[in-house]
Amino acid sequence: MELLFLAHRVPFPPDRGDRIRSYHILRHLAARARVHLVAFSEGAGEVAPPELAGLASVTLIPRTRSQAVAALAALTKGLPVSLTAFASAGMRRAVAARRADAVYCFSGQMAQYLPAGVPAVMDFVDVDSAKFAGFAEQGSPPMRWMMRREARLLGAFERRVAARVDASLFVSAAEAALFREGGATGRIVPVENGIDAAAFAPAAVTDVAAEGALLVFTGQMDYRPNVEAVRWFAQDVLPALRRRYPTLRLAIVGRAPTAAVQALASPAVIVTGAVADVRPWLAAATVCVAPLRLARGIQNKVLEAMAMARPVVATAAAAEGIDHAGTLRVADDADAQVAAIAALLDDPAQATALGAAARARVIERYDWTARLAPLDALLGL
């Protein structure tokens, strides 16, 4: 089979949420079909990683349109910014040049390039329109209007795409249900994220990043929900914990920290920026935290921490997509976060047992091979 794989970002390295999912799916499909990857690059300087050469033919189209230009085009044309930001004549030509028996389209921004008359699976991952609706609830008046507009227009586009493709995929059953509740029709299927439990294993790490009581948060640190999460935690949760544990520190581990994140750096807060390997930081964590107020689907940061046998304290939003069966602690407000984390800091045996249960749950429930098996039938592989 000739399979066209469309992606809004090069699916390598698998070091952030979207790339983790797209890379493992690409690898799964490449073992079963001849895959042609057509993706956007982050500017003209990005080249195809050699690690992808054995998986697919690779065509990269530079994405150079600024957010301001995309917003102006969206307002002029009555379109969502999410689409105009990824509008490209070069991408249209690249897709048209590839013959395909089927298409796997990763991320809603790429749905505008689905070729007519070719069987297609659309991987929305999350309900992006719902994410913008959530942003609208939190924004100031001008931004609130823009986010509501984006949620409305993008939601209508998502529903049109779902009605024409062979299947629409989401990262969790909760996201799939949310999409249906919003009026979407067609075949809507949850295909969950997995974890490479052999790579994310305590025994795989020899260098531990830090010593002493340490809380660790991992993620892309220019992503708004991550930024808001660490700011809230550092301001509303960490001070109360530090009064009880004066040497306790928080490590914010992830690339591209915004100015707001960098401003959190202090003797109590480590801001690492990009790291070559997140696993030593997870191994060093006394507790991993996921205090996201707005989260969609399955949080890879939580799966990775669980796989590393670390105790995790997460908000309900961050834990919702994961079938954790009680192997992490859920706490929403600041007082609940303080109590949950303090209980683990005070009882190392409980923390160790919770981490061991979390790793066992990940191995049982989130192996990539099992998670991606439904793709074979959906694409006729």
Features:
single chain; 381 residues; alpha/beta; Rossmann fold; 2 domains; seven-stranded parallel sheet; six-stranded parallel sheet
How are the elements arranged and paired?
Layout: E1 2-7, H1 17-30, E2 34-41, E3 56-62, H2 67-77, H3 81-84, H4 89-96, E4 102-106, E5 120-125, H5 128-138, H6 141-164, E6 167-170, H7 173-181, E7 188-190, E8 214-218, H8 224-244, E9 249-253, H9 259-262, E10 269-273, H10 279-284, E11 287-290, H11 300-307, E12 312-314, H12 316-319, E13 329-330, H13 334-346, H14 348-365, H15 368-372, H16 374-379
Parallel strand pairs: 1-2, 1-4, 2-3, 4-5, 5-6, 6-7, 8-9, 8-11, 9-10, 11-12, 12-13
Helix pairs in contact: 5-6, 8-13, 11-14, 13-14
InterPro entries: Sugar_tfrase_PEP-CTERM_Stp1
Protein name: TIGR03087 family PEP-CTERM/XrtA system glycosyltransferase
Organism: Sphingomonas kyungheensis
Task: Please give a structural write-up.
This protein is an alpha/beta fold and 381 residues long. It contains 16 helices and 13 strands. The chain has helices at 17-30, 67-77, 81-84, 89-96, 128-138, 141-164, 173-181, 224-244, 259-262, 279-284, 300-307, 316-319, 334-346, 348-365, 368-372, 374-379, and strands at 2-7, 34-41, 56-62, 102-106, 120-125, 167-170, 188-190, 214-218, 249-253, 269-273, 287-290, 312-314, 329-330. It has a seven-stranded parallel β-sheet with strand order 3-2-1-4-5-6-7, sandwiched between helices. The protein has a six-stranded parallel β-sheet with strand order 10-9-8-11-12-13, sandwiched between helices. Helix 5 packs antiparallel against helix 6, helix 8 (224-244) packs across helix 13 (334-346) and helix 11 packs across helix 14. The chain is globular, with a radius of gyration of 21 Å. The model has no long low-confidence stretch (mean pLDDT 94).
